[in-house]
Amino acid sequence: MDAMDQDKTALPRLATTPKTLGNLWRVKVGLMAALVHGVGIYGFFDAYQWGHGSSYTISALVHVLLMLDSLPDVLYLQLDNCPGQNKNRFVLGFLAYLIEAGVFKKVKLSFLMVGHTHEDIDQIFSRLSVWLSREDVFTISSLIKCFESCSRKSNITGISQTVLTKKKRVCITVDFCKISFYMLKELKKT
After folding, report:
1. Upper half-sphere CA count for residue 94 (Cβ side, 13 Å)
2. Which among 7, 38, 157, 189 is least surrounded, fewest beta carbons within 10 Å?
3. How many C-beta neighbours within 10 Å does residue 116 have?
């Protein structure tokens, strides 16, 4: 799981920006993506209507797990070496809770070494960046379509956090306790 540089996903995004619009104020759009090897890529888009700390990381992880048909015994998770979002007591505590709740027998968490921060998902971000350099994008919906079309190698699913909130009837920025008690009961091994 990783987040894309927000400057590259700010809207509107024009393939060729006229000089008169060079200083145009643009809406920041966040993209958090998760690569599930052998299954696909899931991208979560939002217009920064909520914080992007550890709650956001945990929420995206839970939503990816809920979308999978079955869960393995061991969760292998690779995160960026970012203490604010990933490398903190909340994410570690949540992963420990997944084991305690019986969702997984083991969780193997790895962080990239400092200075070597290119994960597998960064290749998709690169493809999206190239795609966006040729497209005029004005809405989050069209940004999601670009994300889903940027690579033919994987099954890519873009999800607007607002739509996901309506479908799952949960708040994306829930605290640790609400996530563990409300959403984890939906996680079942098949």
Report:
1. 28
2. 38
3. 8
Query: Buried (b) or exposed (e) across 42-54, using 16+ Cβ within 10 A?
Result: bbbbbeeebebbb
Interstrand relation of 74-79 and 106-111 (parallel, antiparallel or unpaired): parallel
Q: Where are the alpha helices (DSSP H) in the chain?
A: 6-9, 54-67, 89-100, 121-132, 140-149, 161-168, 176-178
How far apart, in whole angstroms, are the C-alpha atoms of residue 152 and residue 155?
Answer: 8
Token pair 């400057």 is at which residue?
7
Specify the number of domains making up the chain: 1
Q: Which two tokens stand for residue 80?
A: 């960026």
pLDDT tens track for 135-171? 999 998 899 888 888 877 667 777 765 544 444 433 3
Q: List the domain range (segments joined by +) for residue 14.
A: 2-186
Q: How far apart are CA 119 and CA 135, in angstroms?
A: 25
